[in-house]
Design brief:
This protein is an all-alpha fold. It has 4 helices and no strands. The protein has one domain. The longest helix has 15 residues.
Length: about 100
């Protein structure tokens, strides 16, 4: 449930953002603040600054913003899978899926 909450926050901010630049940095800062508020530790690999592998996140985020409401869940799942790599604790265990 926590991962789903973080994913919705991340995706919807990206969809409604009013900024022309810096969206990814703000999304990551918001994500980090929300994860901290939910008492989920961030993984050591989390960074505010973009990394080359974030291109893997760009496509499902873009598709989420363009999708009609009944198609968004598919892209939310893809974003959630990626975002879970930024979290530690139960999310950081190999083959653990999502936290209970």
């Amino acid at each position: 449930m926590q991962l789903l909450t973080l994913t919705h926050l991340f995706c919807w901010f990206g969809k409604i953002h009013p900024f022309l630049d810096g969206n990814g940095h703000i999304q990551r800062a918001l994500f980090a603040a929300a994860a901290t508020e939910l008492a989920i530790p961030l993984a050591a690999r989390f960074a505010i600054h973009p990394r080359p592998f974030d291109r893997l996140l760009a496509w499902p985020l873009e598709m989420f913003t363009r999708a009609v409401p009944d198609q968004r869940e598919h892209y939310l799942a893809m974003v959630a899978e990626y975002l879970s790599s930024w979290l530690a604790g139960p999310f950081d265990l190999p083959a653990s899926g999502i936290a209970p």
